[in-house]
Write a structure and sequence with these properties.
Blueprint (H helix, E strand, L loop, with lengths): L11 H7 L1 H16 L6 H14 L3 H13 L6 H7 L11 H12 L6 H9 L4 H24 L5 H14 L3 H6 L2
Helix pairs in contact: 3-4, 3-5, 3-6, 3-8, 4-9, 6-7, 6-8
Length: 180
């Protein structure tokens, strides 16, 4: 479903196909961010994406990226644990300041302070991790707002195939679909 009169049954792929001038740079950025060189594993990045999308209540992104995070070995319940209490969530202690930072950046970005960055650095991360965490948070805010803003809902019939494809082939594989 979509709220766009010209694309009433649109998927996100349909939106990308209708606006290719934006879809290619978005997918290239997604590939670099989510599958390129990073202090975070691919699974951790998908977990962060799911966490941000869950905070934003974007069911489409929460569902799809949560399923990809599961493929990378994260528990289906982990995001709920993080939403309930980051401190008691079943993640390495080193990741906890990252998730506190992302939560704060997502909910109250003007309240980020030096102590938030210092906690990340003290946990053994470098500045690149801070930048990557912020970029993942920002990118999924963009995608959550696009999806919610045009009324895209998860299609559970195609979810398994798209999740499996993105897990195995990354984000640029979406461009192959767009070129058809």
């Amino acid at each position: 479903m979509s709220l766009l009169p010209s694309l009433p049954n649109a998927s996100l792929i349909d939106i990308f196909q209708a606006y290719p001038e934006f879809s290619k740079p978005i997918m290239e950025f997604a590939q670099a961010l989510m599958r390129g060189d990073s202090p975070f594993t691919e699974g951790e990045r998908e977990l962060i994406a799911t966490f941000v999308s869950s905070i934003n209540k974007c069911e489409y992104c929460r569902t799809s990226h949560g399923a990809i995070a599961e493929k990378f070995g994260h528990s289906k319940d982990l995001v709920n644990e993080l939403l309930h209490d980051i401190n008691s969530a079943n993640i390495p202690d080193k990741l906890k300041p990252i998730f506190y930072y992302i939560q704060k950046l997502n909910l109250t970005p003007t309240q980020i302070e030096q102590s938030d960055i210092d906690a990340i650095l003290a946990a053994g991360w470098n500045e690149k991790a801070v930048v990557h965490a912020g970029l993942i948070c920002g990118f999924f805010n963009l995608m959550n707002r696009l999806v919610e803003g045009v009324g895209i809902e998860p299609d559970l019939k195609i979810l398994d195939a798209t999740v499996e494809h993105r897990y195995k082939h990354g984000y640029l594989s979406i461009l192959e679909v767009l070129d058809r």
